[in-house]
Design a protein that fits this description.
A alpha+beta; B alpha/beta; C mainly alpha; A: 3-stranded mixed β-sheet; two-stranded antiparallel ribbon; 17% helix; elongated; B: N-terminal domain of TfIIb; Rossmann fold; 7-stranded mixed β-sheet; 6-stranded mixed β-sheet; 35 strands
């Protein structure tokens, strides 16, 4: 179980492509994820001390914000973080019970909550902080890529997408098969130079982050030659004789 | 948009997964109310509880997306902060001691107080609502009651936006217009954080960026939308108008203006009388029929609306009667070509290099004139001439509270509209577009109702309306205000949305008079909705010598235990947005778009589990009990059963009611038509909204598009189908100015003459914040502003268990360089001091903020004990309100108290605040200040759970 | 990483227990420690008590302790599973050793003892590998972690055995072993600390966010203003000064003093030796608790890059 499935060419790798160029940090993905999954495959996602100090709950998606660079080159970047459904995830191999598994059919990394003993080792093994303990039930929980939406025959076909993708107001999230080089998401990654997070750890994340684009800049330059009001005696003259018709 | 769905896997042996659970057992559409955006939602229910709320893919506002707030509706519905039953105060005000009472007792108590007021002096009722979306009902009810003292929260929100736009271009940014997201090539966004149109802006920005258009954000802070801008212009707060006028200067200097557009669609060619000191100085020269004149190249002064006019745009002319006149264009160009508007002259004030301003002007000009858009779309203009194409200047603008919440906001907003007009970028392809039912005539309607209030008599007309000049002001013969908030007086002649922020302060000192009953709905005036909440609380609890309260009766309706509840005498508990009918009415602020008019409803998707009633039902019932004519039948019995009955059957004019869709007995009419008993059902079947689709030939140039204007008139959206000529020179403002100069029967009191003369300029001006006059700006060396966070909407979110995890406390953000100079490090505790007071909070350092500006998230700080949160919650211990250091009054000006507001519109000038920041002394850290004592809970509020396991899963 | 008391106790107690079991199983057959069956049985009981207490304590860390039995299934990939299997398997020879001692079956005791010693090594090795295989935690991923675990286990086991053997007057060899393994463990530990202090971070906020191409990256706002599981579990940080002090305490109390006391015991012999070795054992275990606590407290997880940038 916790041995990783053998990767074969063309293997389906479902995942997300997240566009850091358009994410405005509105938290729609995080909250919509929470509400879908609260009653979804992994639900409930408990919230401790919900109306007091120290309120904290289980969330599968958290949106950070960063500032990169300084001065005119500096940028503010909003950064949603969730499970990357890695190709070679240690969170699966470290699991002592087989509760944590990577599906051969689509590459989704899941936890079987009926088996999980809540040892927390998978969360330690995940460099990205994608796993959160349901401390009430004592089992680990994580992003399921909305496995109960994407194949759900009770949901209209156009909406068989992860909740975070459907709800994103700036279309900063895309879902698809990153194992298929011809898929829309793969092409997007290729066109925009999608990046994996912390590639140096060797987990081969499936999810990809599209970097903020180069700023659109225009060639127009100020017309320094145009007269300043001080240069000409009556600057309005030029409009006086303009013949206009309606 | 998301990619096509993944085909079903043929083989899925995973036994641990249920792939196709039913989402719920029922799904209902309605309209979101987690902020003011009015998105369509689909609420999935299971066993009578909410399973999931998603965006309605068919809805024109949000097209299926839903923001973080909307997605958290479940937790707003099931919050333990919900009020449970009507309450009667039994302890002193503010003690929070209440007894539950029956609705009958509550309604009889309210009726008793209100009947007495109405029978004696109806002005002594001040009826003010917050961000409610039923102003067409509440305003109508107030007029029926007979009090002029009604408004919603617009006066402290964005009336500068509305007034600036409606008096310039007959529409406005905000809810009355939108950028052409699909065609704009250059987009300038001024002072926008999460605001009205939250999801449409997000959707639009992503479309704009996907096309590679350039997005420039002018904002002191680089967060949210500004974070994804191609260029962030970190301007100093309150100088946007000056920046805009410097752009105007540059466009004029380089002759990068659309003279044809100006001559056809604006009053640029209209002739202005030049008669300094005379009573007609600055007014338009008009013919006998009252039509404005222009100077025709061959014929001299003629009717400016003639189709064959060949206007001379600059020069000075003499009319046959001897009066000297000049075209508006001439006066405008002359003013803004002056050196004081040159980029060099404004650079220091705006905190931007002159070259940068010139560069932006050059880019705007380049896109507008070298990259113009031509659509092969024939259309017919108001003169009946067919055009084969639609030409557009693809430069779009949008602006919001960062512009409007300043005392110079009205003129700053006018300056932006002037820029649009100069570029020919109003309702043309690629530019900013009107949302139906706009454009409307300038100004859109008659003056405000409110004169001659007398017992038991309704006021005729709209209370919040549009003064055309001094005669329309609500003032007595001495020039004193008739309204408690002094809206539409010489204090604020164009206070189109009232001035809620002054009501309690004015009532407290009986200026202009005392009131008997303060009736509020959804307005958290004892906390985040007030400038200086401490003072509001003081007034609400102040007693006279006989022990009675200065404001004798306070009635408040809210769904939650907000900070204002303890200061009311009678609480009428409202439902949540998912338990009610509502109407996002065509008569108020509907959901129309550039593609056509639209409106929407809310339907109850859940039944209340407590003894609460929708406020609108209560208002209609009170109307009937009070015998208000429009709410009673001739025999005195109630005219409307409830709010849905009112929505369907109320007619403001024959055939015109709250909803424009599915009118007529068979539901086939739009705009005008007989009431339809199935109207609400038809809305429900349509996803709880109605939308008109304009044919392509009506898509642009709506201000001068014959087909559009005629259609608009036929639908009852406008009284006439005349061209709407945009107003560069505003004659109503000049009329106020002339009065200040001593002309006419209605003149301002002497103390306000100079103020009116200065600020009622017919052309846009810029001036430093009134708040800064007489202040030691060296000591208070930082501007302080707030932003709405995208995930929290003021006081609509802290009782939400999910949203408060995301933002449960706020810090004061400051430039890293500035903090270093002040010796401050990340998370240091500081005192923030203004002329009005001081507060204590933590600082957070960042790069993307104007170095002379500090800012924080708005309304995250909560009073301990409110919202059924534990008093130790971070909202109360680490959250804070900047409001505590904002004064609701300007520094004394000649001994008269003036609202800290725009002198033209009365818009609360929240963002004029100046502060100093100093490090706390050791030992002062830990809890924000002020930290008023914790509020006790009303009776029978549910206990706060320690653990929440919300789930509608089959076997959780 | 959060030094959860249950885990700190587990690694200290079961480490010492397995060390004791190892030496007991190894030295008796080799005749390097002369313990009659009864004292040996006492030593075995102590070893198993420490092991069992440690293992039970570790289940306190589980969200679902009643399902702990499931942890034996994934020995093919999971070091935690292997540790569980090894721990359980080691009970078999250990109990047989006890049986041999109890019923006086020396051959059984010898064979079972050697097997138990091997099991002890295997179990400690698996425990160490749980930590050493975690890439996101560079202080655990370090090559000296496994040798360190083994050395610490050997040292604490030797100290305990020396103490017990001293009561039966045969503490010399274990005391020598304690001195040797203590010195080795101290050297390893010091090398380890030097190593983690000098090592570059495994990843940076720039690589964690992909934003390095823009410039230096800083956190602006956290996703939530309150704490969460990840931060409580992995966001634990110890001040450098505080860590340095604790390192000194661990080195002096946990290693240097016990070694010196063992030397003293060798020199003094008799009752004083017993006293010195007993004191040494107590100090060792206390010092190791500090060292184990530090092992967690000084470990940093890459997830904190997202929250604090370091």
């Amino acid at each position: 179980m916790t041995c990783l499935p053998e990767i074969t060419p063309g293997q389906k790798k479902l995942g997300l492509v997240i566009d850091l160029d358009t994410c405005v940090g509105c938290q729609a993905c995080a909250v919509n994820c929470k509400e879908w999954n609260a009653s979804g495959h992994s639900g409930p996602l408990p919230d401790l001390k919900p109306y007091s100090a120290g309120a904290e709950g289980v969330w599968f998606n958290r949106v950070h914000s960063y500032e990169a660079g300084e001065g005119a080159q500096g940028r503010t970047v909003h950064f949603p973080r969730s499970c990357l459904h890695c190709e070679t995830p240690d969170c699966v191999t470290v699991c002592p019970t087989g509760a944590s598994y990577k599906r051969i059919e689509d590459g989704i990394v899941l936890v079987d909550h009926d088996i999980c003993i809540g040892c927390g080792l998978c969360a330690w093994a995940c460099p990205y902080g994608a796993r959160e303990m349901d401390e009430d039930a004592g089992v680990m929980k994580k992003c399921t890529l909305c496995i109960d939406r994407i194949y759900n025959e009770n949901i209209p076909e156009a909406q068989r997408q992860p909740a975070c993708v459907l709800t994103c107001p700036t279309s900063a999230r895309h879902f698809g098969d990153l194992g298929d080089p011809e898929s829309k998401v793969s092409k997007l990654v290729a066109e925009r130079g999608g990046q994996p997070l912390m590639p140096e750890l060797g987990y081969k994340p499936v999810n990809s982050y599209l970097p903020p684009r180069n700023r659109t800049s225009l060639a127009a330059k100020p017309d320094e030659a145009a007269p300043t009001p001080m240069d000409i005696k009556n600057p309005l003259l030029r409009w006086m004789d303009k013949v206009l018709t309606r | 948009m998301p990619e096509a769905p993944i085909p079903l896997a043929t083989e899925r042996p995973d036994r641990a997964v249920d792939y196709s659970p039913p989402v719920g057992d029922q799904v209902k559409t309605t309209t979101c109310y987690m902020c003011a955006c009015r998105c369509g939602i689909r609420v999935h229910l299971k066993d009578g509880r909410i399973r999931y709320i998603e965006g309605n893919p068919n809805h024109p506002v949000n097209k299926g997306v839903l923001c973080g707030k909307g997605s958290a509706g479940i937790m707003t519905q099931y919050s333990p902060a919900k009020l449970r039953a009507p309450l009667k105060r039994i302890g002193p005000r503010g003690s929070g001691e209440f007894a539950e009472i029956s609705w009958e007792e509550a309604l009889e108590t309210a009726t008793g107080w209100l009947r007495h007021v109405r029978e004696t002096d109806p002005r002594r009722l001040a009826f003010f609502t917050g961000r409610d979306q039923s102003q067409s009902l509440t305003g109508f009810w107030a007029a029926q009651f007979g009090t002029p003292n009604f408004a919603a929260h617009g006066g402290f929100c964005s009336v500068n936006m509305a007034a600036g736009g409606l008096y310039s271009i007959g529409g406005s940014f905000w809810e009355f217009g939108e950028p052409d997201w699909d065609r704009a090539k250059y987009f300038l966004m001024f002072g926008v954080a999460e605001d009205h149109d939250s999801n449409p802006i997000k959707i639009g920005l992503s479309r704009l960026k996907a096309r590679g258009a350039k997005f420039v954000s002018i904002n002191p802070v680089r967060t949210g939308y500004s974070a994804i801008a191609d260029e962030w212009v970190g301007i100093r707060p309150g100088t946007d108008g000056l920046f805009a006028l410097a752009l105007v200067h540059e466009l004029l200097r380089t002759d990068s203006i659309d003279l044809d557009f100006l001559s056809r669609y604006t009053n640029a060619p209209w002739l202005v009388v030049r008669n300094p000191g005379g009573e007609d100085d600055g007014l338009f020269a008009r013919d006998e029929a009252g039509k404005p004149l222009a100077w025709d190249r061959s014929r001299g002064a003629v009717d400016a609306s003639l189709a064959d006019l060949s206007p001379v745009m600059a020069g000075e002319f003499t009319l046959p009667d001897g009066r000297r006149v000049q075209p508006v264009f001439h006066l405008m160009a002359e003013r803004y070509l002056a050196p004081e508007y040159a980029p060099e002259a404004v650079a220091e004030r705006c905190g931007l290099p002159a070259e940068r301003i010139r560069q932006i002007a050059a880019e705007i000009a380049d896109v507008a004139f070298n990259q113009a858009i031509t659509l092969d779309q024939p259309w017919t203009d108001v003169w009946g001439r067919r055009h084969e194409t639609m030409v557009g200047r693809p430069v779009a603008f949008h602006a919001m509270r960062g512009i409007s919440a300043h005392s110079n906001g009205f003129h700053s907003c006018r300056a932006l509209h002037l820029l649009q007009m100069l570029l020919g970028a109003v309702d043309t392809p690629g530019s900013w577009r009107y949302k139906s039912p706009f454009p409307r005539p300038i100004p859109p309607g008659p003056g405000p109702a409110g004169k001659g209030a007398k017992p038991n008599t309704p006021l005729a007309g709209n209370i919040l309306s549009f003064p055309q000049g001094p005669d329309d002001l609500l003032v007595d013969d001495e020039g004193n205000p008739l309204r408690i908030d002094k809206a539409f007086s010489w204090d604020a002649p164009l206070a189109l949305h009232g001035m809620m922020h002054t009501v309690i302060g004015n009532a407290g000192i009986g200026d202009p008079y005392k009131i008997d009953t303060l009736f509020m709905f959804m307005a958290n005036m004892a906390w985040n909705s007030a400038m200086n909440p401490g003072e509001v609380i003081r007034i609400l609890t102040e007693t006279q010598e006989d022990g009675s309260y200065t404001i004798p009766h306070v009635i408040y309706s809210d769904a939650y235990y907000s900070e204002t509840v303890p200061y009311a005498d009678l609480i009428l508990p409202d439902t949540t947005y998912l338990e009610r009918w509502d109407c996002i009415s065509i008569l108020d602020r509907p959901i129309g778009s550039a593609h056509g008019a639209g409106d929407a409803i809310r339907q109850p998707v859940l039944k209340p589990d407590r003894d609460v009633r929708p406020f609108q039902d209560v208002l209609i019932e009170l109307g009937a009990r009070l015998g208000l004519p429009a709410f009673t039948k001739p025999d005195g019995s109630p005219k409307f059963k409830d709010y849905p009955d009112y929505i369907m059957n109320h007619e403001r004019m024959p055939g015109v009611g709250p909803l424009a869709g599915f009118r007529g007995v068979d539901g086939s009419k739009k705009g005008v038509g007989e009431p339809n008993p199935d109207q609400l059902q038809r809305y429900i079947e349509n996803g709880c909204f109605w939308r008109d689709h304009l044919p392509p030939e009506q898509g642009f140039y709506k201000h001068a598009n014959k087909a559009y204007l005629e259609q608009s008139k036929a639908m009852g959206l406008m009284g006439k189908s005349d061209q709407i000529v945009m107003q560069i020179w505003s004659e109503p403002l000049q009329k106020f100015r002339l009065a200040a100069e001593g002309h006419g029967a209605k003149q301002p009191p002497d103390r306000l003459r100079e103020r009116i003369r200065t600020y009622c300029d017919p052309l846009p001006i810029w001036y430093p914040a009134l708040e800064h006059e007489g202040q030691d700006l060296g000591r208070f060396d930082l501007s302080a502003i707030t932003q709405r966070p995208m995930v929290m909407y003021h006081s609509w979110g802290s009782m939400n268990a999910w949203l408060r995890q995301i933002l449960g406390a706020n810090k004061l953000y400051m430039a890293r360089s500035r903090a270093a100079a002040l010796g401050l490090a990340q998370d240091d505790w500081v005192w923030v001091e203004s002329r009005a007071g001081r507060l204590k909070c933590q600082v957070s350092l960042m790069e993307g903020v104007n170095p002379d500006t500090v800012w924080t998230w708005n309304a995250i700080g909560k009073r301990a004990g409110a919202w059924n949160l534990d008093p130790d919650s971070p909202e109360a211990t680490r959250g804070f309100l900047l409001n505590h250091v904002i004064s609701e009054w300007l520094p004394a000006q000649g001994g008269f108290r003036q609202a800290n507001a725009d002198p033209v519109t009365g818009q609360a000038a929240w963002y004029d605040l100046r502060v100093s920041v100093t490090k706390c002394a050791p030992g002062e850290e830990g809890v924000t200040s002020p930290h008023p004592e914790a509020l006790p809970l009303p009776p029978h509020m549910p206990a706060r759970p320690d653990l929440l396991r919300y789930s509608m899963k089959a076997n959780p | 990483m959060n030094p959860a008391p249950s885990i700190v106790f587990f690694t200290t107690a079961s480490g010492a227990g397995y060390g004791l079991l190892f030496w007991l199983g190894l030295l008796r057959p080799l005749g390097l420690v002369q313990m009659s069956p009864m004292p040996a049985l006492v030593a075995l009981v102590l070893a198993l008590a420490l092991i069992t207490a440690g293992l039970l304590s570790s289940t306190l860390h589980l969200g679902n302790p009643k399902r702990a039995w499931r942890a034996f299934s994934q020995w093919r990939s999971s070091w935690l599973s292997r540790e569980g299997v090894a721990a359980v398997l080691t009970y078999i020879p250990a109990l047989l050793l006890g049986l041999g001692l109890w019923v006086g079956a020396p051959a059984l005791a010898v064979i079972a003892g050697l097997l138990a010693a091997a099991g002890a090594v295997a179990t400690v090795y698996c425990t160490a590998m749980i930590y050493a295989s975690l890439k996101p935690i560079r202080q655990w991923r370090h090559p000296l972690v496994v040798p360190g675990y083994l050395a610490l286990s050997a040292f604490s086991g030797a100290v305990l055995l020396a103490m017990l053997a001293a009561f039966s007057g045969s503490g010399t060899v274990p005391a020598v072993l304690a001195i040797l393994s203590g010195a080795a463990a101290l050297l390893l530990k010091r090398a380890y600390w030097r190593g983690i202090d000098a090592a570059p971070p495994i990843a940076t906020i720039e690589s964690a966010t992909t934003l390095g191409f823009i410039g230096k990256t800083r956190t602006l706002e956290p996703p939530h203003t309150e704490q969460n599981y990840l931060l409580r579990e992995m966001g634990f940080r110890i001040a450098r000064k505080h860590a340095a002090k604790l390192r000194l305490i661990a080195q002096l109390g946990g290693f240097a003093l016990p070694v010196l006391l063992a030397v003293l015991a060798l020199l003094a012999g008799g009752g004083l030796a017993t006293l010195a070795l007993t004191l040494g054992a107590v100090l060792t275990l206390a010092g190791l608790l500090v060292e184990r606590w530090l092992m967690f407290a000084e470990a940093t997880h890459t997830v904190t890059l997202y929250y604090s940038g370091t």
